[in-house]
Amino acid sequence: MAAIAIVIVSHSKQLALGVRELAAQMVQGQVPIAVAAGIEDSENPLGTDPIQVYEAIASVFSDDGVLVLMDLGSALLSAEMAIEFLPEAQQEKVYLCEAPLVEGAIAAVVAAAAGGDIHQVMAEARSALLAKATQLGVVSRPLSVVSPITTNIESSTPEIRLIVSNRLGLHARPAAQFVATAARFQSQILVRNLTRNTELVRGDSINQVTILGVRQGHELLITATGFDADEALAALQGLFANNFGEDNVTLNSPPAFHHEVTPTTHGELSGIAASGGVAIAPVVHYQPTHVAITEYHVDNPDVEWQRLQAAINTARQEIQAVFSQASLQIGDAEAAIFDAQLLFLEDPVLLSAAHQRILDNHINAEAAWQAVVDEVATSYRALEDSYLQERVDDVVDVGRRVLRLLTGNAAANLHLESPAILVATDLTPSDTAGLDPTKVLGICTTSGSATSHSAIIARTLGIPAVLGVDAQVLHLADGTLMALDGESGKAWVEPESDILDLLAAKQEAWQTAQQEALATAHQPAITRDGRQVSIFANIGSINDVQVAVASGAEGVGLLRTEFLYLDRTSAPTEEEQLAVYQAIAQVLDNRPLIIRTLDVGGDKPLPYLRIGLREANPFLGWRGIRFCLDHLDLFKTQLRAILRASVGHQIKIMLPMISTVTEVRAAKVILGEVQAELNQAGISFDAAMKVGIMVEVPSAVAIADQLAAEVDFFSIGTNDLSQYVMASDRTNPRVANLVDALHPAVLRMVQQTVQAAHAAGISVGLCGELAAETLATPILLGLGLDELSVNPQSIPRVKQAIARLSIVESEAIAVSALQQDSAEYVRELISTSVTPPA
User: Looking at the predicted structure, is the pLDDT value of residue 381 above 60?
Assistant: First the structure.
C-alpha cells in the first residue's frame, strides 16, 4: 500500500489546522499530514514561510511521494522555494498541486488511504470539486438546502422498512447518530418517511433527516445504493434495534410540577415551569450580540468560500470545546445536544447551498450563510411537530456563532460579577451550557418551552427557570429585585413581604436538600455495614481536575495523558508535561493521582508519528504499551516528566494495554534507566512511587497472579475488556449490543482479577464506564473492588448508592449475578434484589 504524505500550505494557520483536522477524520489518521501555515508575527500572522514548508515536507517525507496543496499567492512561491532546500533525490518525490485546498486535501487523503500512487492521489485532488458537484447534483443548477431527492429507485435497490420506537422519534441525538452512521459508508443512503408520505432525502444530511419529522410509530423506508449497501442498511437497522441507546423515557424530562393555587398578587407573572427551585435576586438582562449583515458584491467568490470554511472550522472547534465542558458539567447524555450542532456544520447539502450562493450571486460569505440558515430555520418552523419546531434554537445557535466569527465580533459575555436572575428573550443551548450556577441563580425568559434544549440544560445544572413570561419583563431596570419559583412557573417583580417569606422558606428547604447531597459527595463512601470504598475521578485535562475535586473526588484514578499529545504537530516536551502534571497534583492537594502513560496507536494514531502500514484490526494492533515500547524517546520523556512531578505528591504510574509479563518487565527496566539518569543528574523524584497496570486484555486476567507479583496495583478497564471478552467492536452498531460489562462473562473476569490481586496483597480498582452505572454498584462492591474511578459528575450519585448498600447484601447479589446467563438477567436480578435503606 502506498504511503503518500500530504502537506498543507496556507496563509492562515487556523485554516490549515482546520483542513488537516477535517481530512484526518476522513481516514482516521491513516495518512501523514503536515501543516506549514502562518508566520511568527503577532501583529500580522498571515503569510507563508519557505523554511516552515521545507520542515513540514521533511517531517513526513516518503519515497512514495509527498503532495503539497497550497491556498493562494505567495504560498506557491514558498512551496517552490522549499523544494530547493531538499536533497536532489528527494525533490523529484515532491509534487505541487493546484487543487482546491479543502476539497483537494479530503480527496487526496482518501485516495492515499485507499493505496493509490502519487499520480492517482494528485488526479483525485485535482478533480475533487467536479466529483463533489456531480455527487451533489449541483453541476448545472443551484441546490436548495431542503429540496428532496427525486431519484428513481429501481426495484433491485436494497431497502429496509423500520418502525421508529423512540419516544421522541428522531430528535437531535438519534438523528445525529443516524447521519453519522450513514456517512460512514460509500453507498448513497436515502430515507423517506412513509407515514408522512415525504420524498426521499439524503441520509447524510442532518437537516434533511430532521425535517422528515420522524416521530414515535412512524414507518421509514431506507434505501442504499453502492457496493457496501447491505452493510450500511444493517448498521442503520442496528441503531433502530438498539433504540439509539435510549431507554424510551424522556431524557431529563421536566418534573411533574405541582402548581400552587395562589391569588394573583402585585407584580406576579405567570409562565412555564421549566426547572424547579426558588431564586430571589436582582435581575440582569442578557442580550446576545447582534450581528448586522450587509449583502455586497464580491469579485473573488473563492476567497469568500474560504472565509466561510475557516469560520465553520473555528465554530466546530468552539462547539467541541462547549461539548467537552458540558460533558463534565451536565453529563454525556445532555451534552450530546451539541453533537447535532456539529453535524449541522458538516451537512453537505447546507454547505453546498452556501457555496452555490457565493459562486452564483458573487455575494459575501455572511450574506450567503445567513440566507441558507434562515431557509433551514424556516423549514423547521413550518413543521407541524412542536418538538421539532423547537430545534430552530440549535439552528439559530450555530448560525449566529459562524456569523460572529465571520464578522470578527466577540462572543457575548455571560459572566456576572454578583449573583443574579438572568432575564432574556431566550437563551441558546450554548448560552445555557456556559452558565455558572453560583452566579446565575435563576432564568426568566419571554420565550422557550420545558422541552427545549436550554430547559434540559438548566434542569441539569440545577438552575430554577420560568419561561414564556410577559414581555414587560424585558423593560425592567437591571438591579430590580425579582423572585421566581421554577416549580409553579411564576415570577414576581419587587415581591411583597408575604410572598418573599413564603418563597424564602421554600428556598431554604430546597437549598438544605441540595447541601445535603453536596455534603454526601464530599464524605467518604461507606456502606451500611461500615466498608469504605475509595471514589476517584477519571479526567482528561487540567480543567477536569477542578470539577472532580468540587464533585467530591478522593483522588484521580485515571489521568488520560493523550490530551497532551493531540492537536499539535510534535510531541509535548518534558517541561510541558511536567508543568501539567504538577498543576493537576497541586489542585489535588496530596490526594492520589494515577497517571496512565500514553495510550495511542492503532485506533488512536498521532498525526506526527508515522504508524506505517494501515492496520486491518486496530483494536488488536499496535497500541498502548506496545506502541510506547517501540518509541523509547517518547516513553522516556513522559516517564521523566512524571517522576519529576512526583516530588511532594501522591503520584502513581499506570501502564495501559498490558497483555504479557514481558511487557511489564520491559517497562520497569526503562523506568529504572530513567530513574538512574535523574539520580545521576541530581534531580529529585519519589523513589517509592508505585507502578500499576490496566487490566483490559483477557490474557492479563488469565495471568493476573503472575502480573500481580510485578506491580503495586491493578485498575480494570471494563470498556476495552468487555469488547475483547465478547469479541465485539463497541463502535460497530451491528454487534455493539454484545459489549455489555454486566455480562456474566465479563463479571467473572473482574472477579478473577480481584481475587488474584487480593491474594498478592495489592489493591484493585475499576475505571471503566461500568463504575459510574449505579445499577452495577452492588455487584462491584460484592466482588470486592477497593476503588471505583468515574467521570466527575457521577461521583455524588455513586457515593449515595454505596451508602444505601451493605457488603453482605452486595456479596449475595454478586454471587447470584455470576450464575446468570445474560446481561439482561443480571440487570433484572439487581433491580429486584437491592433492599431499600433502613
Answer: yes
Least confident of 514-523, 577-586, 718-727: 514-523
Nearest to 344 by CA among 404, 398, 307: 398
Return the DSSP state at 474: G
The pLDDT of residue 384 = 55
Which amino acid belongs to residue 542?
I
Q: Tell me the pLDDT tens digit for each residue of 751-783.
A: 999 999 999 999 999 998 789 888 899 999 999
What's the pLDDT at 259?
Answer: 35
Sign of the alpha-carbon torsion through 405, 410, 411, 412: negative
Angle between helices 392-407 and 337-346 (to 10 degrees): 60
**Residue 668 three-state SS:** helix
| Catalytic site residue from 97, 444, 628, 767 | 767
User: How far apart are the C-alpha atoms of 294 and 364, rounded to whole Å?
Assistant: 9
- Secondary structure (DSSP) of 756-823: HHHHTT-EEEE-SGGGG-GGGHHHHHHTT-SEEEE-GGGHHHHHHHHHT--HHHHHHHHHHHHT-SSH
What is the chain's Cα-based Rg?
28
* Neighbour-count burial of 285, counting CB atoms closer than 10 A to its CB (0-12 exposed, 13-18 middle, 19+ buried): middle
Name the DSSP letter for residue 482: E
* Segment 147-159 mean pLDDT: 57
Interatomic CA distance for residues 747 and 816, integer angstroms: 11
Please say whether the beta carbons of 333 and 453 come within 8 A: no
The stretch 20-40 carries a mean pLDDT of 80
Q: Kindly tell me if the per-residue pLDDT of 609 is higher than 90.
A: no
Contact 653, 639 (CB under 8 A): yes
DSSP string of 649-666, one letter each residue: S-EEEEE-S---HHHHHH
Q: Can 767 be counted among the known catalytic residues?
A: yes
d(C-alpha 545, C-alpha 594), whole Å:
12
The pLDDT confidence band at residue 2, using thresholds 50, 70 and 90, is: low
Strands (E) across 245-376 are located at 268-270, 272-275, 278-285
Instruction: Decide: 801 and 774 in contact? Cβ < 8 Å.
Output: yes
Percent of all residues in the chain with a pLDDT value above 90, rounded to a whole number: 36
Distance CA 220, CA 641 (A): 55
Stretch 387-416: mean pLDDT, rounded?
Answer: 75
Sign, CA torsion 151/153/159/165:
positive
Where is mean pLDDT largest: 445-459, 598-612, 669-683? 669-683
Helix (H, G, I), strand (E, B), or coil: what is residue 484?
strand
Q: How far apart are CA 7 and CA 59, in angstroms?
A: 10
The residue type found at 166 is N
DSSP 29-83: T-S-EEEEE--S-SS------HHHHHHHHHHH--TT-EEEEE-STHHHHHHHHHH
Question: What gap in Å lies between CA 214 and CA 391, rounded to an integer?
Answer: 13
Distances (CA, A) of 613 to 151, 621, 751: 40, 11, 38
| Whole-number Å distance between alpha carbons of 263 and 502 | 14
What span, in angstroms and rounded, lies between the C-alpha atoms of 253 and 257? 11
Q: Give residues with Cβ within 8 angstroms of 430, minimum separation 6.
A: 319, 322, 338, 341, 397, 401
The SS3 call for residue 97 is strand
Tell me whether residue 628 is one of the annotated catalytic residues: no
- Across the range 90-103, mean pLDDT stands at 88
**Dist. CA 580–CA 367, nearest whole Å:** 43
- 3-state secondary structure (DSSP) of residue 204: coil
The whole-model pTM stands at: 0.49
- Does pLDDT of 740 surpass 60? yes
CA angle 686–690–693, rounded 5-degree value: 140
According to DSSP H, which parts of 472-541 are helical? 497-521
Residues 11, 218, 355, 453: which is the catalytic one?
Answer: 453
